[in-house]
Amino acid sequence: MITAKMALEQKREVFAVPGSIFSPQSRGTNDLIQKSGAKLVTEVSDILEELNLTTVPQQMELKEALPATDTEADLLRHITKDPVHIDEVCRGSGLPASTVSSLLAMMELKGLIREVGAKAFVRAR
Asked: For 29, which of 8, 16, 20, 56 could close a Cys bridge (C-beta 3.0–4.6 Å)?
């Protein structure tokens, strides 16, 4: 309660989860909400909305959809919607098969590409 009151005095955000009106242990948080201006929290989205963080999951998803390195971006240029064999990707990129294979595996885990069988890959998005 001391920390919450000091935060309110400093004009900081204070959030409180309400408790039962019949429980003496809930009196502090309920008073913070009713009298002190603490924000009522019943679910995570209440905090995310108040702090304008509702788009963070979408931003993280978009970040994962982007190539992490220039090499990944280069490999992605060689992969289309039509199946492309790993050997063609190696020839086109000029990279060794071991490098291409590991990068393609990582890109598949990120959801950038899909293997469609027999070491042939297509863009996933």
From this structure: 16
What pLDDT tens digit does each residue of the chain (125 aa) get?
899 989 989 989 999 999 999 999 999 999 999 999 899 999 988 888 888 777 766 665 655 555 667 888 888 889 989 999 999 999 999 999 999 998 898 888 888 889 998 899 998 87
How many other CB atoms are there within 10 angstroms of residue 40's CB atom? 15
Distances (CA, A) of 34 to 15, 19, 20, 57, 98: 12, 12, 14, 31, 63
In whole angstroms, give the CA distance from residue 94 to residue 12.
55
List of domains in the chain: 2-54 (no CATH), 62-123 (1.10.10.10)
